[in-house]
Amino acid sequence: MKQYEHPPAEAFQLTAILHALSDPYRLSIVQKLSVLQPQPCAPLQGDRPKSSVSHHFSVLRKAGLVRTLVVGVTHMNSLRDAELEARFPGLLKTILEAAARSEGLPAQV
Amino acid sequence: MKQYEHPPAEAFQLTAILHALSDPYRLSIVQKLSVLQPQPCAPLQGDRPKSSVSHHFSVLRKAGLVRTLVVGVTHMNSLRDAELEARFPGLLKTILEAAARSEGLPAQV
DNA sequence: TGAATAGTTCGACAATAATCGAACTATTAT
DNA sequence: ATAATAGTTCGATTATTGTCGAACTATTCA
């Protein structure tokens, strides 16, 4: 049951977090996790091949957004929301609110 | 006195904003502007060549973060903070606070 | 043990983005 | 008109990211 490395909260880098969330697919993963967590990778996969999904989760983990717990054969992902809140208060919540706002609008012309 | 194109606030894309701010140099420009605006490009230039600076300002403009007003020979930049606040409440402020927090810490090991 | 499941790692390729010199544009000052 | 100033645009180069198939690992189940 080998587990992942996760950076400690003190090592979170704002620019890495912003970069991680600047990808629409990764942002959508974080949005879905914010509603239901923890959750394995599979339901968040969309139509992408597993190797891409794995790559994006790795980016999210390295930025400190997601913690992945290996439980048997599935990898359970959750947001590190408490740690993020302690390190960068309001950041995740505000970005998630903004993400919710930018949906359901007429396609960007 | 030709002026720039700036996207309307309704067209702001969260992911473009996050991407723009995920670059440390651009983030530092936005930080400096938040303290003193409007401001020409030159004082924000650092040690970079003009063409790079120009590129980064273009990214910031296209994301909707910065408005550039051509005044005579200088280009005065300011944050589009009111419009950003209307479109994505709290976003810019929270990111700037996070940026302030992530400074003055021991180098990331 | 063997097969199924869930996801990772590797490696190659494509796409996007950053960097920077050189030439250019617009405005102001002489 | 000429020159100086402030910044842009172009084009080439490099660096960083994203994508995806194929092979691999770890765990569970039969």
List the main descriptive attributes of the protein structure presented here:
homodimer; 109 residues; mainly alpha; Arc Repressor Mutant, subunit A; two-stranded antiparallel ribbon; 5 helices; 2 strands; 11% strand; DNA-binding
* Fourth-tier CATH superfamily name of chain A: Winged helix-like DNA-binding domain superfamily/Winged helix DNA-binding domain
List the chains of the largest interface with their residue counts.
Answer: A-B, 29 and 29 residues
H/E series of chain A? HHHEEHH
Helix share, percent of chain A: 40-55%
Count of DSSP strands of chain A? 2
User: How is the quaternary structure best described?
Assistant: homodimer
Biggest pleated sheet of chain A:
2 strands, antiparallel
Radius of gyration of chain A: 14 Å
CATH topology of chain A: Arc Repressor Mutant, subunit A
Q: Which structural category do the helix and sheet elements of chain A fall into? A: mainly alpha
Low-confidence stretches of chain A: none
CATH architectural label of chain A: Orthogonal Bundle
Q: Assign the CATH class of chain A.
A: Mainly Alpha
Report the portion of residues of chain A in β strands: 5-15%
Summed over residues and divided by their number, the pLDDT of chain A gives a mean of 93
What count of domains describes the coordinates of chain A?
1
Give the N-terminus to C-terminus distance of chain A in angstroms: 48 Å
Question: Numbering strands along the chain, what is their spatial order in the largest sheet of chain A?
Answer: 1-2
Number of contiguous helices of chain A: 5
Shape of chain A: globular
